[in-house]
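Regression report. Comparing outputs from two consecutive submissions.

Submission 1:
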Amino acid sequence: MRWHVTSNGLKAFAIGRIAQGHAELLLDAVVPHAAVLTRIAGASVGVVPNLPSRLNRFALSTKLFEYVVLGIPAVVSDLPTLQRYFSPEEVVFFRAGDPEAVVDSEFRVIGTRGLRVVDASVFPRIPGFFIVTPIYMIAEKATDAILAEAHRDASAHR
């Protein structure tokens, strides 16, 4: 198993201690712009969780095209434009705007094992213009969930 964590928070070190002996751990504080596509190419799955809005109904995410070109399976909102240009054989659709359609309360992608999404896409509504603080908050919550699950798993194996 490989964990790739992009964080400059203190809990990244706690995750590193838990991963020792169980998983290969890669820690990054920042991903340089030139390295983004390389990082994406290593992904197991891509998630494009566009919310249904007046503008998004016509949106085609460049991130989705990157996933498709790189051959990465993609999970996307069932917005009309996406359904027009992609078939269910090419991508997996979920109900746009349904906060329970993609991730659960611990950021696990529903219907998968070992995959979490922790970014602004998990918000049912974008919380204002300055979303950095709420993103840090969900990152802390996700870290707590990951650490708690790792402790439960470690206790079960004793």
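Submission 2:
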Amino acid sequence: MRLLASIAAVAALSGAAGAQEFGAFSMEDLRQGALAMPTVAAAAVPLAPDVGRYAVRGIDVSAYQDTIDWKKVAGAGVAFAFIKATESVSYDDDAFARNWAGAKAAGVPRGAYHFYDFCQKGAAQAAHFIAAVPKDADALPEVVDLEKSRDCRTMPSKAAFTKQFAVFVAALKKHYGRAPIVYTNGKIYADYLADAGADYQLWIADPNDASPDVPAGRSWTFWQHSWNGRVAGIDDLVDLDVFNGTPQQLASLSAALPGVMVAER
């Protein structure tokens, strides 16, 4: 989930490669605009992600992608999609219900995600998400996006965050029967999640390397390798992802399982 204005910046940092086609083989860009971009040295040359070995490929979307033709998306070989549902304690993504139903009707496995507000209570955010996202035995694990936003000017201490986030996670686990996936960036990961003691799998957002740079040498389950992809059925740019496993293993994620943590470079 990159910020809205970051698409153009990422494209510029990526050189002349431009948008990536899904077949050649990103989570959504926030409605409120970019806050900060990673610092990239002038001499740095991002490497093209090498995703050829990963057959299970997906996308993540929100209202930013406008109306999606999910039949065309399915026909393009998209194996999974994560769809924005809510943000903080009151924002609902306008396209969630349409995308949630459309993806299922087209046979695209999908999961829902929530953009977490560090300045709001975990219980209220969990209640907001639960009210918007129905239980579905076929759905992929729920997702929580952890990154700084303009809605939270003063970030909490690690102890304060950990307390509220534990309440959020516990509420989702109780309701859905599994821990949520966690999407985050490198700074938030280092400041709030490193050495947290939780046994998370990893989903890494890293479009600037040939292979995902895994924090602390850990293995990964998902890799978000592009923030400016092109997929049939979607007019706007979209994030592209791969799953480090087989279609059968992806399907098994619908069962109760530990959360998946996303670490974005």
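Expected: both submissions complete independently.
Actual: both completed, but the second showed a warning that disappeared on reload.
Relevant detail on submission 2: The longest helix spans residues 158-176.
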